[in-house]
Design brief:
The protein is of the alpha/beta class. The chain is built from 14 helices and 15 strands. The chain starts with 9 loop residues before the first strand and ends with a helix.
């Protein structure tokens, strides 16, 4: 369908320095992306411009230099660290005589390699089709169907138009299947909400260490590697937190600077786990000199998917790469955790993360002292099953005096489940704790 040069494993990288901050990209990040894609960088060419050239993105002289580098290194793909228009790709391919990929095409290629689940493959294919649908501009004159004369009149549709129609049909088919997946995910989220199980979503820049942290917390075996976009397919696991009970932890795809809009749109079903989360764990590689910039990039994507107002707990990861930085919890003026410093790879500071998670999610805890008479002794087993008993004793009348601490959701469930609600046995309520919870 696409009259394009075949891409290979030997690449010439092109990086342009622009004066405009919004157009700037990092050369080191391009090299990481290329390495993650399994491509060897034969040469790296850099230049500076005030604005992109309309025909080649770079100047005509630099385009000739790129073509010479391709010939010298016998390269079969040129990768730009920027977004190219379809015409710029075509013009560069005609002069370089090899495949030309822009930053978006490179990211899509990495995603195609990483997709493992059926849903992930559909999402990647959708993003790829949306991207290349604008690049169906090759010459198909040899397949032209609009010819005149006896016996030569075709259906009036060029090969290019046929390709576009086939693409539109495939895109519609994938969208329908992804909508079905989205409905299934929504059903799972509704059931978790009915059970009042909180969801915690790991978010962060790609290669910040989210999957390593996920594996440490859940004892899962999610693929984790020191490369960009090691995780593509979302993974959910149940964890147990003191004073909170069960919670769902979600590992999601990493974000990146100037994340292509096609990817954001294609991964809408996956990113919805982030949208619906009760708490976001924003994982940051603090050993990276640009970590503040990457934090801003992640927050921009969160705003784009309407999750920017979610409660965040900042996870300052990879402290093992820094000198004299110890694991700790930073708190705000009200004493609530805002940052946790740890090393997921070395499993240092994980107990502090568990403590911070409990404090963030256990805001709706109730503390009661109950007086339960002997005829209702069956409640003792119910409370022990919930593991909510802080202290117990018996008074002179044989009544069971018990101090309980549990999530308000568990208390409300017991009120609905038991014939005689627990509230009738309340002897003393910890008003201070309740006041803290209300605040």
């Amino acid at each position: 369908m696409f009259d394009r040069y075949e891409a290979g494993e030997q690449a010439v990288l092109v990086h342009v320095n622009f004066a405009d901050e919004n157009s700037k990209e990092e050369l080191a990040e391009l090299e990481l992306l290329v390495s993650s894609a399994g491509v060897n960088a034969a040469d790296v060419l850099t230049t500076s411009r005030s604005a992109p050239h309309a025909k080649y993105f770079v100047g005509s002289g630099k385009a000739e230099e790129i073509a010479a580098a391709v010939k010298a290194h016998d390269a079969n793909v040129v990768i730009f660290n920027h977004a190219l228009s379809p015409s710029q790709e075509r013009n560069l391919e005609s002069i370089c005589r090899c495949r030309v990929l822009d930053r978006t095409g490179l990211i899509l290629d990495i995603f195609a390699q990483r997709a493992r689940t059926h849903e992930g493959k559909l999402q990647v294919e959708l993003a790829q089709l949306r991207h290349i649908s604008t690049r169906l501009i090759r010459g198909w004159t040899h397949l032209e169907r609009q010819k005149g004369g006896i016996g030569l009149r075709g259906p009036g549709e060029t090969q290019l138009e046929t390709d576009r129609r086939l693409l539109r049909g495939r895109i519609k088919s994938i969208i329908r299947r992804l909508e079905k997946v989205q409905r299934q995910r929504e059903q799972g989220r509704r059931s978790r909400k009915r059970a009042e199980i909180p969801t915690v979503s790991l978010v962060g820049y790609t290669n910040a260490g989210k999957s390593t942290l996920f594996n440490q917390i859940t004892d899962a075996h999610v693929y984790a590697a020191d490369q960009l976009f090691a995780t593509l397919d979302p993974t959910l696991r149940k964890i147990e937190l003191q004073d909170v009970g069960p919670a769902i932890l979600a590992d999601t795809v990493g974000f990146i600077r100037h994340l292509p809009h096609d990817l954001v749109a294609a991964f809408k079903a996956t990113l919805q786990e982030t949208q619906e989360a009760d708490l976001l764990l924003h994982v940051v590689d603090v050993s990276d000199a640009r970590y503040r910039e990457t934090m801003d990039e992640v927050n921009e994507v969160l705003d784009e998917i309407e999750a920017g107002d979610k409660q965040q707990l900042l996870i300052c990861n990879k402290i093992d790469n820094l000198e004299e930085v110890k694991p700790r919890i930073d708190r705000d003026d009200e004493g609530m955790p805002i940052r946790v410093w740890l090393s997921a790879r070395e499993a240092v500071g994980l107990e502090l993360l568990s403590e911070a998670l409990t404090e963030c999610l256990a805001r709706n805890m109730v503390d009661y002292t109950l007086r339960i008479p002997p005829e209702h002794s069956h409640l003792r087993g119910v409370l022990f099953d919930l593991n909510c008993i802080a202290e117990e004793s018996y008074d002179t009348n044989g009544d069971w005096m018990v101090e309980v601490r549990m999530p308000a959701t568990d208390w409300n469930k017991l009120e609905k489940r038991l014939d005689k609600g627990l509230s009738e046995f309340v002897e003393y309520e910890d008003t201070v704790a309740q006041h803290d919870n209300d605040n």
